[in-house]
TrEMBL record:
One of its GO terms (molecular function) is catalytic activity. This is HIT domain-containing protein. Coiled coil: none annotated. Residues 7-122 form the HIT domain. InterPro entries: Histidine_triad_CS (IPR019808), Histidine_triad_HIT (IPR001310), HIT-like (IPR011146). CDD domains: PKCI_related (cd01276). A motif (Histidine triad motif) lies at residues 102-106. Pfam families: HIT (PF01230). The active site is at H104.
Length: 125
């Protein structure tokens, strides 16, 4: 059984409006309401099927996981600002920065991105 209803479930059902970029039978992509770059799109599976986070993936999730990554290429074709480059991020778990317990990919771009991303908050010794 999946976790409680998330904001993404409400977007999929139409209870909450979103600026949709792309959708098909398996997934939905929309602009993040709190963008971290000029272009910040979230890509989610329409059915969680236990995919609250990537580390929970099982054998039966392989098809949708591959579909999500392939769909990124379709989104790049639709969004000109991503054609010069982009980053795909999956936050997993509390320490990974995950805030919604429904697997989602962040497609980020529209500017020169730096490396390394994020911060560990601790010094390396």
């Amino acid at each position: 059984m999946d976790a409680e209803v998330t904001i993404f479930d409400k977007i999929i059902s139409g209870q909450i409006k979103a600026n949709i970029v792309y959708q098909d039978d398996l997934c939905l992509a929309f602009h993040d309401v709190n963008p971290q770059a000029p272009v910040h799109i979230l890509l989610i599976p329409k059915q969680r099927n236990g995919l609250t986070q990537l580390s929970k993936a099982q054998e039966h999730n392989k098809e949708v996981l591959g579909h999500l990554l392939f769909t990124v290429t379709k989104i790049v074709e639709l969004v000109d600002e991503l054609k010069k480059g982009f980053r795909v991020v999956i936050n997993d778990g509390e320490n990974g920065g995950q805030s919604v317990w429904h697997l989602h990919l962040h497609i980020i771009g529209g500017e020169q991105l730096t490396w390394p991303p994020g911060s560990s908050g601790s010094s390396k010794k």
